[in-house]
Amino acid sequence: MKPVIIMDVPVHPVTNDEIIDRLKDMMKEPKIHSIMTPNPEMVMLANKHPELMMALTNADLVLPDGIGLIIASKMKKIGLKERVTGIDTMAKVLQICHENHMRIFLLGGKPGRAEKAISNMLEKYSGIEAAGCHHGYYNDDENDKVVSLINEYQPHVLFVCLGSPRQEVWIHKNSDQLNCRITMGVGGSVDVYAGEVKRAPAIYQQLGIEWFYRLIQEPTRIRRMSVLPLFLWRSLWMPKRVYRKER
Length: 247
Prior knowledge:
The chain is an alpha/beta fold. It has a domain at 23-134 and 148-189. It contains 13 helices and nine strands. The chain has helices at 18-28, 40-46, 50-58, 67-76, 86-100, 113-124, 143-153, 166-174, 189-193, 202-207, 210-217, 222-225, 227-237; strands at residues 4-6, 9-11, 33-36, 61-62, 103-108, 130-134, 157-161, 182-185, 243-245. Strand 1 (4-6) and strand 2 form a beta hairpin. Helix 1 (18-28) crosses helix 5 (86-100) and helix 4 (67-76) runs parallel beside helix 13 (227-237). The chain is globular and about 50 Å long.
């Protein structure tokens, strides 16, 4: 699947229905695959953050998580079909693991929160064979120990919840040392699965304005959210060559 290029960031024009078969194929292939879920904020940051741009450029599957990407695609007529969120895709991955008795590992979140998230996942997806976790509050000099711990569990899927851009850069830097089929950056999903944060009601999800619901819940996010109108403004005036479909 050829990606759409938005401000030099490749984004795959996959749909929520199509992604299920792609995930199953990744599970079968005896190599590691990386999945990343950019929104407009991450795309803008990647243009100032070379390591993040490198991670996104080398990912196997880059999902159009933010509604702003879909709007930009429609403005420039370059082919993104619909929003495919990280948390919805994570649920699809967990369902596949449940059906096939696979193993998972969750890296990230505050101490104790990852364990709570894993417990809730296993309660809902009881067919998962085994699950391990480690919080995200560790020093760089502990990284090798964390990677070894992950490999001891031999997970089919590794969910990385370190926040952006740390999680994308971490996946890119450590993939060649990991023994799993899929690594996926899923940000704050650990807090949702731990029951610490509520996801936006369905109507907000359907309208693509989960960001607005989160802003209501956390007004301090206003500075981060201000990126969206800037992104759309640039989308409107930037030349089409910056927003294109790969040939």
